[in-house]
Amino acid sequence: MGDTRRRRSKALASGTGVAVAILAALISLGLSLSPIRDKMAAAPSAPLVEPKATNWVELARQALDRAELTQIKVGFKAGVLSVSGDVSELEQRDEAGAIVRQAVLADPSHVGTVLALENRITVNGTDLADAPEAAALMGKSPGAKACQTAYDTLLDGRVINFASGSAVLADESKPLLDALADVARRCETYRVELGGHTDARGDATANQALSERRAQSVADYLVSKSVPASLLGVTGYGETQPRDARGSAEADARNRRIEFKIVEGVQD
Fold first, then answer.
1. What are the CB-based long-range contacts (under 8 Å, 24+) for 45-51?
2. pTM score > 0.90 for this model?
3. Scanning 6, 54, 183, 255, which has its CA 20 to 30 A from the CA of 223?
């Protein structure tokens, strides 16, 4: 065998030996790591930490304190964040409402949680009777459920009033109607039925006609506030769907109402 061939054979043998040694080391390392891998696989995964829910009362309270409006009280119930108290100037009342509104809108998690803002602050003891604000809190593209929730929130415990026995809207209901109009404009892709209801006093046929006229008066007012007429349907139910059948004056007041209902089948 020539010198060249001997050198090639020696190099080949040496390389094979190194490869075998490396393979053996890897096998040994794999075996030594397998218990660690098994323990890691068996170990329970760390639980997901849910983001902490915003304390809306505390958020509003801190914003008001920074503005030195420490006398203003804050409440949160059924999705409505309210401020109350008494101030000496209308500007203070408006400032408190604006501060809370800005603080809530700055937190994206408010959508679907804070359904309305209500300013119940009096000025020198005088109640200005503003309706809650819902439209601004609904997000950019509210769905049908969000729109219905906004209507329900505004009408929860509040009714649209009329002059006795007529379809003439009472002036004190204008703030509530304005808030409902804001929602209707935001929910511009959904038709809403305005359902008129009366109490059971008087003639049923007359009540049926009155309920429809009252619903139409509400529709006319909303149209005057730039709500497209095509979004509004009017139905009179008269005395056929009472909320409270006790027959008392309080029950009659609850039964006289206009309900807002998103029409089924619209595009969400």
1. none
2. no
3. 255
